[in-house]
Amino acid sequence: MDPLKKKFVEIALPRVADFKKLLTEYGDKEIGTVTIGSVLTGMKGTVSLLTDTSKLDPEEGIRFRGYSIPELREKLPKVQPKGEPLPEGLFYLMLTGELPTQDDVAFLSREWSQRSDLPDYVYKVIDALPLDTRPMVQFSAAILSMASESKFFVAYMNGLSKADYWDTTYEDIMDLIARVPRIAAYIYRRMYHGNAQIEPDKSLDWAANLAHMMGYEQMEVYRLLRLYMFLHADHEGGNVSAHACHLVGSALSNPYYSFAAGMTGLAGPLHGFANQEVIRWIQSMLGEIGHACDDKEKIREYVIRQIEDGKVIPGYGHAVLRKTDPRFTAQYEFGKKYLPDDPMFRTVECLYEVVPGVLGQYQKIKNPWPNVDAGSGVLLHHYGIREFEFYTVLFGVSRSLGVLTQLLWDRAYGSAIERPTSHPLEWFKEQAGM
Ligand code: HAX
Q1: What is the DSSP letter of 340?
Q2: CATH class of the structural domain 274-382
Q3: Spans of the chain below 70 pLDDT
Q4: All structural domains of the chain with their residue ranges
Q5: 10 Å Cβ neighbour count for 95?
Q6: Whose CA is nearest to atom 49 of ligand 1?
């Protein structure tokens, strides 16, 4: 058994015992209320999921196993002392609840590198799709095509005991996380670089190798992708990609099916697609207001016009957060350090000064502050990664770390199939006395 898997067993056993005790001895304890409003507005704030990997605080933003983003930028292992944390370290923390050592992280880089080869047919599946097929369609199809590779599924068909579900799930999620950067880079080079593919450099860490396979060798791009992969990895259990992965996994669909479901959710404009929308939106704004990116009055007027026309300002607002997203702040700091004079970055700065004030005047908008997507695109754009429609795939590669760790814990706990109850409109009217 590999050392991480062994550690997982040690940590999981007492937690699983607590999980079972909660269910058997405290199952009837009331922990919240459901209102008609919560049902009709997407169940926001309704406590209905158990997720250990991270917790989103409306005021403070995300904490991974109790650690904030600034804390982890300090504490997680890095390649250079002043660099960005390795996503391997965040994965280790989410899986075990403990901060990793350099050795733990080196083990994961090696392990993922060894597991990263794709079956030949995956390339053929991608190649069979028209070249202009949306990158997220190619990405999801490639992931789904590997579902027959699932070690969990093979073991299940051979009569696997419920107590052992987690074991082959661990193998599947490690294989999947190892493989997604290869899929992403293959799609990128196929679509935008004449299919001139670049072999992986197995001496590199997970994120740097992705930059390398996409064709970017600058240290700053390695650093940016490490930060990007770290920041987008997890956002507790209720966001669409995590919840879709959990929901499909709750039917014991294997991790390939479950992760593909999460990715089709990520592709939506109110979720991961927003990162590409932001940059397209900035460009069309600059086109209309005459490239005066520092003219805050023109920006203000443009933003107001957009809202009055019933459009959303991408990159702003959040279903749970009520402050500036610390994931935005981390990317903003990166931009300030490495690309302060980039005109697109300067526009993001101006928007940050103007948009919250405008959105704050509309009572219905609960959070006027920037979210993770408000600044990510301009950083990629600066280094030449300008194929906006591909940005959501990068988000998806990162998300594999969080949602698949959540899925492993679901299997360890023996989580139940998800099956909430629904009612027709008349039932709600009756409840309301309408
Ligand atoms: N611009 C204009 N209107 C906005 C807005 C924005 N940025 N954010 C919210 N609103 C509007 C909503 O459209 C809604 O209007 P209606 O009542 O007319 O439908 C109203 O304000 C109330 O919305 P809310 O309760 O504040 O927010 P929701 O929980 O409904 O939605 C969203 C949260 C993130 C979907 C929303 O803020 C939005 O559409 N933002 C722009 C798109 C975006 O940046 N998405 C990425 C979110 C982060 C993420 O998940 N990344 O993956």
Answers
A1: T
A2: mainly alpha
A3: 291-293
A4: 274-382
A5: 26
A6: 271
